Amino acid sequence: MNSLAALIPLFPLVGFLLVLILPKSTTREPVSGWIATSAVLASFLTTVISFVWLLGQSEREVTIHLFSWLSVGSLNVDAAFLLDPLSVTMCLFVSGISTLIHLYSIGYMHGEKDFKKFFLYLNLFVFSMLVLVLGNNLLVTFVGWEGVGVCSYWLVSYYFTKDSAASAGKKAFIYNRVGDVGLLLAMFLLFSHFGSLNYLTIIGLGSTIPLSSTVALLIVLALMLAASGKSAQIPLFNWLPDAMEGPTPVSALIHAATMVTAGVYLLIRMSPVLAWSTSGRWVIAIIGGLTAFVAATVATSQKDIKKVLAFSTVSQIGYMILAVGTGAYSAAIFLMVSHAFFKALLFLGSGSVIHSLNGEQDLRKMGGLQKYLPLTFPTFLIGWLAIAGIPPFAGFWAKGDVLTNVYAFSKPLYVLGLFTAVLTAYYMSRLFVLTFRGDERFREVTEGHDPHESPWVMTVPLVILAVFSALGGLLDLPWAHSMSLAGFLDPVFESTVSPVLGSHMSEFLLAGADAAAGIIGLLIAFSLWKSTSPWPRFESSFFEKVWRWDDFYDFTIGRPLQRVAQFGSTTVEPKILDGAVVATAVSVRRSAEGIRKIQSGFVRHYALVVVVGMMLVVLFLVARSW
Amino acid sequence: MTIPESWFLMLAAVIFGIGMFGLLTRRSALIMFMCIELMLNAVNLTFVTFSRSLHDIGGQASVFFILVVAAAEVTIGLAIVVAIFRRRQSTAVDELSELRG
């Protein structure tokens, strides 16, 4: 029974292989999409069965050994999965949301030239993500980690004939590679100290083998570098907004709901390791808080609907990282799950909007869509209220849970988080108003037609996700922690720091503050964006240009490297390398010009040389005999 | 009375010198060939002389080899000279300097 969980990642792999090898005639447009969708659905159902089975077990930590993978010296790595409350929770929402987004994609990708390729990558992505989540050691996780990275690269540059899409894919991949270095370093450090990469072994040995605080800090920082690459945190966050060049379902699945949470998952999986270094956890918390704030400010002045959502994703993951830093792991997971619901919903909703406007993404060319999209509008409304933190939707509970823990950890970070919550409500309301309310500014892009609602394969996932976004809070109500998500997850985190708040009173006050933050942001946005023309003037280009972050990298890394390359191409290559080659050729030619005179072509010259040579030999012999 | 060996050697040296002088001074391929033959036979003469004075048959054996090789060389050499003559109506070697560097 327990080996059933090995099927969870297997189904998407089979789906991938089927779509790959079946002849073209059998995988024409809708069929490959349905194969991929049913593969992921099977994976989701298997996860549900495993989940139910795990609930019935008293020992909820099951290792599924597949085969021995590497055995070199003292390094023994098994291809094995670890089924525990954490991984099963991750699998549930990853496979569940993947199923919905696969279904949605069948409608969204209709008529694309590379329809089959899209589902191929999407299935491979789900497989990699599930391997990442289920792996019982860092190396198996690393395989999944790289797998999702490469699928993300392929899918971001899906429209690779477009220059911006191709370079966005490269950017995403390179930023991720920088983060991967962190994961590799963490693996090296952990292996050199514990001789194992297995999560349970490392965590078990951690309490018996003391680690110097420097090494512990280094490990935590390396893990954080890995997480900031994959989860788009400062200093590696700028790849995510560019990744919106991919098709919208990809943005929803990979760059909002699942892959970008892999960094958070890694940190949570290594949570006992984080407990070894308090300063490391402070670094994590501060990076998370700052990212949440910076990304939220940027989101307030973006003009592309998907860019707003992308920065909002960065900001929300910042919250999760902040929660991890404060030790509130189950709060981070709670926010991750509810964020996956409402952010997937918002992205799919925006995809539906973009679909209805023939691919237009500019907020300035939207507005007044409320009456044309009867299903997209109410579902988007729920997603908007959920992310803005308006009770009783999922975002309120999840963000409230995080902020309560932050309050117990550090007051300045709490203030930052609360201010970010106001910003979140503001930019999401701005997005909502600009898209669905106000004047109809889209006539130009639709060539005078009315926008049309999307087909059922696209609206059904919207409705399901809207239900979960609305009711997601039920997963973990603050007064029922023991019988909810947190109660299910907590055994995994031996070192959870539960907030010490004193009384229920303060908890209610904090919840009130969260709700107030959401409502204030909402009111500001509605009063500012009542009329959309003229465009309000305070949209700072500093925010729009992402705090000049790209320019900063361009200045500190790009330009100097470009100068080095310039020096190489103007000096080293033509002068030093070419010079050496040319000098060799010239010296050979010069010396040859001297020597060739000997070859006069006259036989008697040659004969003379022979005679002279002979005489020299004779002279030598005569001289020697004397 | 026996002729002293030094006479044979001197004769050989004289023939060799004549051959060498001819080789270096004449322009006709055919004459140069004959000069080479002179030099070869001068060498043969020294071989035979030493073979006799040292009572070693090896010298005479070498002469046979040289004769055979010289015959072969003459065959090919004359063939080349004839081929050149057919093309150029001349065997003056100074005109044959296309292969100079």
Describe the 3D structure.
The complex is a heterodimer of chains A (626) and B (101). Chain A has 626 residues and is mostly helical. Chain A is 70% helix and 3% strand. In chain A, helix 14 packs across helix 17 (394-409), helix 15 (329-356) packs antiparallel against helix 17 (394-409) and helix 16 (376-388) runs antiparallel to helix 18 (411-436). The radius of gyration of chain A is 31 Å and the shape is globular. The mean pLDDT of chain A is 86. Chain B has a single domain (5-95), classed as Helix Hairpins (Orthogonal Bundle). Chain A binds chain B through residues 595-604, 607-608, 611, and chain B through 20, 23-25, 29, 32, 93-94, 96-101.
List keywords for this structure.
heterodimer, A: 626 residues, mainly alpha, two-stranded antiparallel sheet, 25 helices, 2 strands, 70% helix, globular, B: 101 residues, Helix Hairpins, 3 helices, 77% helix, elongated
Radius of gyration of chain B: 17 Å
Helix content of chain B: over 70%
Number of strands of chain B: 0
Poorly predicted sequence stretches spanning 5 or more consecutive residues of chain A: none
Number of helices of chain A: 25
Beta fraction of chain A: under 5%
Average pLDDT across residues of chain A? 86
